[in-house]
Each structure stands twice: as C-alpha cells, then as structure tokens.
Design the sequence.
C-alpha cells in the first residue's frame, strides 16, 4: 500500500472479526518495526506477542475492562528493555524509540487490511505479572491487532496545519 | 512510494545537496504528520519550519556543532505544546505523540526523495532562545530536511527478530 494511503487510512480499531492473523503477516509487520531508527541505534523495543485467550482476557482486565483487547486475536505488548538513557536534549530515549517502532506496526497493519489501537490505559504492574515481564522492563503500550469489523475509512478530526506549524520563529 | 519500501529505505541523512525543498512537498509531509494518532487526540505536536540561514547556523551551534543541521535547507523543530498529561500506564503522552508524528515526517521525506535525521543532541534552552519558543514548550527533536548527497540505500544494522520478540510470555 502507498505510504500516504496507509497514513490517511490508519484508524483506531476497537472491534475485531473472529479471524486469526496469519503468522507470515505478523512476522512481516514485526520486521518493519525492527527497521525503526532509535537513539544511538539502541533498539530497546521488545514485543510480547500474546494469542492465548486466557492471557488476552487478563490483559483486558488489566486494561480496566476494555474488552476489545480480549476480542482481538493478537495483542502485541510493546516494551522497552533499557529505560535509563537520556538524550542531550534531556528527553528519555525509550518512549520515543518504542513509539517509532509501534508507528511502523500500526501503518503496516493498515497496509495488510488489519487494524489495531494504541492502549495507554492499563495497569503496567498487572500486565507485567500476567506475562512474567521483569520489573525493570517498561510496558509502553498494548496493541490489540486483528481484522476490523468495520473496515470503512473514517475522516480524522485534526487541527488545521495553521494551528500546528509556525515559520522561522514560534510567534 | 510503497509503505514497506519507505520503511526499509529510510536512513539518517547527514549530508545534503544545495537544493531547496519545494513548499508543496513540505506541506504534503506536514499534512501527513498532522494525521498521526495521539493520546485522547490531544495533537500536542507543534512544528517550527526554519529556512533562514542565520537561524540554521545558530541551531547547528545549539546542536553542539553538528554542521549538517545548517547545511540542510530546512530544519523542522519538533515541539510539544502541552507536556503534563500522563496516561494511566504512567507514560507521559507528549514524547510518544510527537514521535509518531515525526515518524510520519521521516517516512514521507523518504517517499519524496528527501532525507532527514532525528537530532537528540542539542541544548533545548538555546534552541528556545533562538526561535522565541516559550519556556513551557518542550523541544523534542530537531529534524534537518533536504535532498541527500548520497541517495543510495544502506543496509540496516538491527537486532534479529528472535532478540526482540517473545511469544505469550516474556521468557
């Protein structure tokens, strides 16, 4: 799929068909995540691919009852392995690096006719307990992944360019 | 350009031709950034598009002498306007949201035959002073943008999939 088409068609999917994600497609998507850039090429992203229905139910509970997390045939639990590095601009490396890799996943999912949804409302300690993730690892987002019940496009509610872009100086 | 091709071809460009970036292409790229998802659709990304040679020289100085920041015909200074929101998983929203939008920019730049480079080594206070960016705004990354001197593909040095993906549980 064309890059711009993927960017414009990507949407947050919260309702999935009862249809599994083939392994080769999942691998293709994760390979694209692997290509992401990261600070000092640290590649601190780590992914736990969850398919077991019991685990998905537990993750939905840890996501404060968001049942579509259990409905999706796959949940990619997106983590960072090393979390202490800070850039000279004072930004922590890992949230940015993981976000870039996850953005690749969401765009590739769209290109494959799949849908997903960034989940930020979850209890990280419960997720770590469910999946035996060590305490020093950070869980950044849960990403349910599957074929959308409604594949139609949605128009995006976004600020106009004039509100987000300035030229030469801030004001 | 095909999405996967853009993901695989994207590379960090640190040497640029003396050739300007046409406004319609820059606008097309920024429109794609605008389409990014964000926590609660907060869209806290803000961009300052810098073309003035004096400003670019000053930004290169603020980036600890990385001269290619001045060599690029455009520097997109990527900022966050609201920086206090935290997701229930305890992650700050703004670094992730800005990173998604900037990832869109880097991929679209590749699709347009342009190159760019995430810069994390800079003094944020100096950048804010140069461009009159208020203290409450966070500068997340500087993104020089231009036509690469060397448009050839590079092979990416990345960890194999087995090192970054686990199935069902962490171990």
Sequence:
């Amino acid at each position: 799929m064309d890059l711009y088409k993927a960017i414009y068609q990507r949407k947050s999917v919260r309702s999935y068909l009862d249809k599994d994600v083939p392994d080769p497609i999942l691998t293709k998507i994760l390979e694209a995540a692997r290509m992401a850039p990261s600070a000092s090429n640290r590649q601190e992203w780590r992914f736990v691919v969850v398919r077991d229905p019991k685990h998905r139910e537990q993750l939905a509970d840890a996501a404060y009852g968001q049942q579509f997390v259990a409905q999706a045939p796959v949940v990619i639990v997106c983590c960072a392995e090393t979390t202490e590095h800070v850039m000279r601009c004072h930004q922590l490396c890992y949230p940015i690096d993981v976000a870039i890799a996850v953005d690749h996943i969401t765009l590739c999912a769209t290109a494959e006719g799949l849908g997903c949804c960034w989940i930020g409302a979850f209890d990280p300690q419960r997720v770590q307990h469910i999946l035996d993730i060590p305490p020093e690892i950070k869980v950044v987002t849960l990403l349910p992944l599957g074929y959308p019940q409604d594949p139609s496009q949605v128009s995006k509610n976004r600020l106009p360019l004039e509100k987000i872009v300035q030229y030469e100086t801030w004001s």
About this structure: Chain B touches chain A through 80 residues (CB under 8 Å). The first strand of chain B starts at residue 45 and ends at 50. The CA atoms of residues 72 and 126 of chain B lie 19 Å apart.
